[in-house]
Amino acid sequence: MDSNKLGGKVVIVAGGAGLLGREFVNAVVENGGIAVIADADRAGGEELQKSLKSSKAEFIEFDITSKASIEKMASSLMKKHGKIDALVNSVYPKNANYGRKFEDVTYEDFCENIDMNLGGCFLLCQQLIAVFKKQGYGNIINIASIYGVIPPRFEIYEGTEMTMPVEYAAIKAAVIHLTKYFAKALTGCNIRVNAISPGGILNNQPEEFLEKYNSYGLSKGMLEAKDLNGSVIYLLSDDSQYVNGQNIIVDDGFVL
User: Residue 192 pairs with which residues in a beta bridge?
Assistant: First the structure.
């Protein structure tokens, strides 16, 4: 039986067609909310909407780096639903050269990835905050990372072709602080802004890497995307009414 923990809340899941976003969309629907799959990936978003077979899920195409696109999305949702209760921001745009070892990252690529990702996070939050202020309330959850909290454990990447991108570390650390900045700046506005910092998420990583990563876990080690759903639903629900400006780490103890 589905829960009604969200009680018809309209929740934008930005990046809703992605690895984490898909799980968040499912969780919102299963908990009685209306999930807006907001993504630049039209094919992926529409496929997800169809697979859910629920009137509580809808797709809307948007670009996190475009003010006009964000405004159009917000206007459309306000016209249709009369409200937007919350935003879950799990978008992670990146350019074609993203993921190189830091020695090989060009200044231009570094700046472009920061601009798209951190700049997009700022723009999306800024524009939704304007809507929330007029509405009289709102709720934002940004998806950050443990690598915005601690430096990388480079030893777990040894022997693989993987690395922990320098852009990722800079972006996620900034997202956490931007979250706190907005929460403080919105004192008295009835708008909450929090972040969730996941640990590693299973996504076809090589076994050698998983073994090293899991050695830092306290029980499970590498998480599945669905393991974040409880924290997301908690922050979306009224149970977390007075949780504001926080960064909740979900990592099976990896950072300890």
Answer: 139
pLDDT digits (tens, 9 = 90+) for 146-197: 999 999 999 999 999 899 999 999 999 999 999 999 999 999 999 999 999 9
| 168 counts as catalytic | yes
Residue 169 within any structural domain of the chain: yes
**Domain containing 41 — which CATH number?**
3.40.50.720
Which structural domain range is residue 21 located in? 10-250
Torsion of CA 164, 166, 168, 172, to 10 degrees: 120
- The one catalytic residue in 98, 168, 213, 216 is 168
Asked if residue 23 belongs to a domain, the reply is: yes
Complete edge-to-edge strand list for the sheet that includes strand 10-14: 57-61, 34-39, 10-14, 86-89, 138-143, 191-198, 247-250
**Is residue 1 included in any domain, yes or no?**
no
Q: Does the predicted TM-score (pTM) go above 0.85?
A: yes
